[in-house]
Specification:
Blueprint (H helix, E strand, L loop, with lengths): L17 E6 L4 E6 L8 E4 L1 H5 L8 E4 L11 H15 L19 E6 L2 E5 L4
Parallel strand pairs: 2-4
Antiparallel strand pairs: 1-2, 1-3, 5-6
Amino acid sequence: MSPVRRCSRTACGRPAVATLTYVYADSTAVLGPLATYAEPHCYDLCAEHSERLTAPRGWEVVRLSDPSAPTRPSGDDLEALANAVREAARPQDRGARPRGGGPRAADPMEVARRGHLRVLRSPDS
């Protein structure tokens, strides 16, 4: 027996990618990601047959998305990414002066930064 589950449609030997379940009480056909185990009252479908699925007249088809499937980034995602790149590319003023005027000798100086942590040089060195 093959470890790959095949499409339940007659004469289709392609690998299954989705599972179809009928909810007769609600007149609904639910098409979701491939179930972990083959169930007796569920139908495994290949990509082509899952895309072309239609339900009987008066029934509703509910398509559940696969959370592990790659999704295309939205415009907001791309804009947020561009803003993050712009922010990272800005030169940082590491020797920022205090508001009171010139630099004070007692202020520690930032030497390096990793994430939210800073390495400071003591005023003695």
